[in-house]
Amino acid sequence: MVKIGVIGYGYWGPNLVRNFNNKNFSRVTLISDLSEQKLLKARATHDVETTNDFNTLINSEQVDAVVIATPVFSHFELGMAALNAGKHVLLEKPMASTSEECRLLIAKAEEKGLCLMVDHTFLYTGAVQKLKDLVKSGELGKLQYLDSTRINLGLLQPDINVLWDLAPHDLSILIHLFDEDPVSVQASGISHTSNGIENIAYMTVNYASDFIAHFNCSWTSPVKIRQMLVGGDNKMAVFNDMEPTEKIKVYDTGFEVKSDEDKRNILVDYRVGDIHIPKIEMKEALAGLAKDFCDSIIDPTRTPKSSSALGISVVKMLEAADTSLKEGGKAVNLFK
Amino acid sequence: MVKIGVIGYGYWGPNLVRNFNNKNFSRVTLISDLSEQKLLKARATHDVETTNDFNTLINSEQVDAVVIATPVFSHFELGMAALNAGKHVLLEKPMASTSEECRLLIAKAEEKGLCLMVDHTFLYTGAVQKLKDLVKSGELGKLQYLDSTRINLGLLQPDINVLWDLAPHDLSILIHLFDEDPVSVQASGISHTSNGIENIAYMTVNYASDFIAHFNCSWTSPVKIRQMLVGGDNKMAVFNDMEPTEKIKVYDTGFEVKSDEDKRNILVDYRVGDIHIPKIEMKEALAGLAKDFCDSIIDPTRTPKSSSALGISVVKMLEAADTSLKEGGKAVNLFK
Amino acid sequence: MVKIGVIGYGYWGPNLVRNFNNKNFSRVTLISDLSEQKLLKARATHDVETTNDFNTLINSEQVDAVVIATPVFSHFELGMAALNAGKHVLLEKPMASTSEECRLLIAKAEEKGLCLMVDHTFLYTGAVQKLKDLVKSGELGKLQYLDSTRINLGLLQPDINVLWDLAPHDLSILIHLFDEDPVSVQASGISHTSNGIENIAYMTVNYASDFIAHFNCSWTSPVKIRQMLVGGDNKMAVFNDMEPTEKIKVYDTGFEVKSDEDKRNILVDYRVGDIHIPKIEMKEALAGLAKDFCDSIIDPTRTPKSSSALGISVVKMLEAADTSLKEGGKAVNLFK
Amino acid sequence: MVKIGVIGYGYWGPNLVRNFNNKNFSRVTLISDLSEQKLLKARATHDVETTNDFNTLINSEQVDAVVIATPVFSHFELGMAALNAGKHVLLEKPMASTSEECRLLIAKAEEKGLCLMVDHTFLYTGAVQKLKDLVKSGELGKLQYLDSTRINLGLLQPDINVLWDLAPHDLSILIHLFDEDPVSVQASGISHTSNGIENIAYMTVNYASDFIAHFNCSWTSPVKIRQMLVGGDNKMAVFNDMEPTEKIKVYDTGFEVKSDEDKRNILVDYRVGDIHIPKIEMKEALAGLAKDFCDSIIDPTRTPKSSSALGISVVKMLEAADTSLKEGGKAVNLFK
User: Fold this and answer.
1) Tens digit of pLDDT for each residue in B225-264?
2) Is 70 exceeded by the pLDDT of residue A215?
3) In 3-state terms, what secondary structure has residue D77?
4) Between chains, do D231 and C221 touch, taking CB under 8 Å as contact?
5) For the residues of D113-169, what is the DSSP string, one character each?
6) Paired strand residues for A71
7) What domains sit in chain C, N to C, each tagged with a CATH number?
8) Are the C-beta atoms of residues B96 and B123 closer than 8 Å to each other?
9) Which one, A78, B188, D166, D257, has least CB within 10 Å?
10) Could you tell me which chains touch chain B, where touching means 3 or more CB pairs under 8 A?
11) What is the per-residue pLDDT for C272?
12) Distance CA C218, CA C229 (A)
């Protein structure tokens, strides 16, 4: 049993605690939060000790691994302290405020031989696993585009813009599904508040091959849309997360381009076929994440699905998007 | 009765002829096309004369006004010839291949005192008129964003990219609804064919005030989406053109931003209210366009809804998008 | 080429004329209607002769087969006259006002060796053909139920109730899909007008085997629903005719009943699987009907899909429903 | 604070306990169940005492009111015992196995001056309260029909048919919305199991005025539908319980019947107007029910919304439906 300490018992913390408190592979032994009221609630719900000092938690012998569910600006400091104390670390997404912070965390984890992972929960949903299967098996064919819309009425956050809040979900799925390293990122957006933090933003990720990814994020839409299109040259999958069960729809529709000698003459043959709605396994994604984390602690040769490498890639793209936003939307290169 | 000559009897021409052939204000007297077969079909359906020489049509005394429904590259030559021959002109959208061509056409029409109009049909639909009412009456409040997705399986065109094909619809609606001149345009996209012409593209239009417009266009999606969000600080309207009758949904939902002295502390109050689906008048949009054109011929002081000024604005934004696509997505200024 | 005469050029007549006027197997030579204006319209659209005397049409040597698209009360008289004149007959649905009339028409057609058919157009749609394939191939398994809802704002008719207007579509599909003879019919309903003719009605068709069919028909619903569930013990198909293309959805979901010795203990194992949306061929159903009629004229050994046997079965069930409505909803037996 | 004892801690019991355990008006003091494991779970979750003997609970001084959440066949015995012990009683729906049992329970409660109520939870949902408002305010006009479809894959129950399981929800809403006493009930259905208990059934409720109600219930549909149409002569409301938030849609569409002297000539004028989706208050229905029960205990002059009178009416209609099923669907009168 991996003994887990959880820092931060706000919105997401209780879900993490519930899933790490299982009978199979882990147990939450200690929870820390600055709010005494939240700790009271934690103790009322779980058989657990609490502290309002995260250092106590990080240095506790009752803790093998630290789960950090605090605002992103504190990830680096807390994560570094935990790694230095010899604890495995799971960070809430996004991994940290800058890619440099991510790089230092990764280096430290490697140095210490500890597991460092990021909570990109979506990767553990039945829907994303089905998408991965569709890509991996070659059913979609060669990937051509990923286009995601994630908009609704969201809490405007004072320190991060809408891309840092919403896009990590989509970016983690993008990296999970499409292996190639992106070349550049473009972004545009707007702030409707006086603090200049974008509440609506659009982001394009470009690749050397003929693949493109686009993200539409908004905190300001009364209509809630959670829709991702993943198009291949053979089939196309739509992931509509607002559907209670029919989340993935696979369109057996493609087109074949035939150009004759005159390059300008493009002949396109469309093929319209059946649509398939595969059964999606309904399971709690966080349970899969918790297991992946603990498995990767026990077996250090194992790379978890939501790895630190994936985590830093997400942050690099968000950083590039910020730069692009500041520089009028121009393509910002992603240096490896 | 305005006597109409129509050049081009391909995909859209027959619809134009049907709507200009009415008992109230206009009659189609002459049709020209290079294909004898199409002219045969025209004569079989309508009581009309035909010619395969557009010059004959342009110079015919049987023609007061020329409707040009040919590929965009020919709009300038044909439009100029018609204006020079003293005919009023309606051009299929987009108005011409470059804004310079548009400018010259507008100057010629002014010089000759002739009506020059562009066929942005959408402006005459019941749905767009309802959107205009919602904006004009102040019901939506101060406009904050317009976000449009127009994707499906489309015919890849050999000479123009997907923005020139699909975005004119949305850009014309944007200009119709939102009065302010845009400042810059950003675009990103990809070509999946060897000719390098984008079949998927994204476009952002920026403004001096805190309004933003975004367009997502694709010829490569098996899922057909025709959805536009028009958000104001009071209400938000969704225009879903795939709905047979319930095309407009108005969300009485908004948020009020309250920042205290510390600018970083943004407090947002959401208000979630009813949804309203106004009845949309079902009428043929082209009939309204035909009437607007003829009315504007008869009364030279009248500015048609789908004016040449609107037409050139659309082309300027498409030109800027092309430049942005070539220059890695950077914001391209729209000089007046 | 079969020479066709069409009686009745009202709502449906023009569609029939267009589909029988083809280059392959038939030609409309003569149209009759009581309204001179409608005949004028017919002559303007088609190269056809017209008459306002149906007797002239029935006895014309220019006519091999008569298509009767008049109100149902006139079907018997017109059909009988045409058969007596040696013409093949296609009757608009429902076949006639009573099953006795149907019986006499069938007897006359047999006596004369002529083709007698009913226009149950739905049987020729791609969607119903797909349903038939799903049943015939055994994919759905043993059929257990058919449940149809066909409601919207409809024109209240002065001489027939909502079941006679709307249910023939569903009943013809029922007979086409499920071979067994029904045992009895129950119906309930209500009239919201002073003439006592039901504008809302419900109808159940019972069978000796454990299959049941149910129909919900209304002229009084602002919501338009056209939905049919066809359930087998293996899979279930939903036919939603309001969907533009995705009309058929096949649910690979079933249940297996396991009763142990104590009959009251029913154990049910549910199996929830994928959903499949087969591609439906988009074609004009009336073209298929026209071809079936002409083929059956040319080859007298052939039984058309929408046969007179199917036509009389539909009328028998409607008659039984009327009786049930009058007798408080009790099950009315269908004697063969 | 009303002290509540709960008998039955199975599927629904925990929800009842959670809602009666509040800080405002009631507290659960005692829970009884035959399963020791369930009682263990109850004690782990709540600060409550438990017993496996319902008699202990019924006679406990710690209990003012008994909530009975056991299978329907036991409602009468348990309810009677509780009333005889001087306790107020809330019965899970349906109230009892027969209307005679309901009658005896009501008589006993009256004799003892105790509150007797049935848990028709739906009456306390925001959606049904909105429907009630629409009826009461006259917005829908004179009610003409109620048509409900409640189908999905459900657990086939060994002792009651699908109507007794699913229809109580709809029947309670019907009675709540429409005041008139029904005249008769018709039903049809089928059993796909060897025990002869209907898993699919249809039910019509007839009235002296021109109102009709129809119910379509199934445990055998892979498609889950929860849809109710409530039509008035002014507007029509659709209640779609599968929608997460937009549950009620009000169609401002109606028709006016104008008959001229000849009664057969019905002229109908349709009016198609806007659609309105009112905001529904999202609240836990059971909390409202718990409060209504406690309020009615404290104030004996108060009639709760989900009264015993409503409860017996539901059972009378179900009984009549059973009789109709046995007698071939004929209309079974509901004697008062």
Assistant:
1) 999 999 999 999 999 999 988 999 999 987 766 655 555 5
2) yes
3) helix
4) yes
5) T--EEEE-GGGGSHHHHHHHHHHHTTTT-SEEEEEEEEEEE-PPPSSS-HHHHHHHH
6) none
7) 2-114 (3.40.50.720), 123-283+316-333 (3.30.360.10)
8) no
9) D257
10) A, D
11) 80
12) 17
A11 to A8, A15, A75, A76, D246: CA distances (angstroms)? 9, 8, 16, 20, 26
Checking if the pLDDT of C115 tops 60, the result is: yes
Q: Would you tell me the crossing angle of helices B308-326 and B162-177 to the nearest 10 degrees?
A: 130
Q: Which residues of chain A make contact with B194, given a CB cutoff of 8 A?
A: 257, 259, 263, 266
Give chain A positions within 8 Å (CB) of B149: 149
Residue from D143, D192, D236, D259 whose CB has the most chain C CBs within 10 Å, to mutate: D192
Residue B46: is it exposed, middle or buried by C-beta count within 10 angstroms (0-12/13-18/19+)? middle
- Residue D292 CA to residue D308 CA, distance in Å, equals 13
Q: Does the pLDDT at position B44 exceed 90?
A: no
pLDDT for residue B258:
64
CB atoms within 10 A of CB C55: 12
CB–CB of A167/A72 below 8 Å?
no
Task: Yes or no: say if D194 and D157 are a contact pair by the CB < 8 Å rule.
Answer: no
For residue A50, the surrounding DSSP H or E stretch is strand A49-51
CB nearest C158 (choices: D156, D249, D265): D265
Residue of chain C minimizing CA distance to D217 = C147
**Collapsed DSSP state (helix, strand, coil) of residue A331:** coil
pLDDT in tens, C51-65: 999 999 999 999 999
Which residue is it, tokens 């040009």?
Answer: B68
Tell me the C-alpha distance between D94 and D107, whole Å.
18
For chain B, how many residues are written? 336
3-state DSSP assignment of residue D18: helix
Q: What number of other Cβ atoms are within 10 A of residue D325's Cβ? A: 23
Average pLDDT, chain D: 93
Q: Look at residue A299 and give its three-state secondary structure.
A: coil
Alpha-carbon dihedral angle through residues C50, C55, C61, C66, given to the nearest 10 degrees = 80
At residue D107, the 3 state secondary structure works out as helix
- pLDDT band of residue C144 (cuts 50, 70, 90) is very high
Q: Write the CB contacts of B288 (distance below 8 Å, at least 6 apart in sequence).
A: B124
Residue B277 and residue D277: Cβ atoms within 8 Å? yes
Residue to mutate among C243, C277, C280, with most A CBs inside 10 A, is: C277
Against chain D, the chains showing at least 3 CB pairs within 8 Å are B, C
The tokens 């989509």 sit on which residue? A170
Query: What does the alpha-carbon distance between residue C76 and residue B140 come to, in Å, rounded to a whole number?
Result: 60
Distance CA C319, CA C97 (A): 9
Between B219 and B262, whose confidence is greater? B219
Distance (Å, whole) CA C155 – CA C161: 11
The pLDDT tens digits for D104-131 are 999 999 999 999 999 999 999 999 999 9
A261: tokens are 């000698």
Strands B2-7 and B65-68 come out as parallel
Contact A183, B254 (CB under 8 A): no
Q: Which of B208, B256, B258, B259 is nearest to B234 (CA)?
A: B256
CB-closest option in B158, B221, B231 to A220 = B231
Minimal Cα–Cα distance from A76 to chain C, Å? 44
pTM: 0.91
**Size of chain C in residues:** 336
Which value does ipTM take for this structure?
Answer: 0.91
Task: Find residue B6's DSSP bridge partners.
Answer: B31, B67
Closest CA to C210 of C250, C183, C238: C183
User: Three-state SS for B268?
Assistant: strand
Question: What confidence tens digit (pLDDT) does each residue in B63-109 have?
Answer: 999 999 999 999 999 999 999 999 999 999 999 999 999 999 999 99
Here the tokens at position C31 are 């149209």
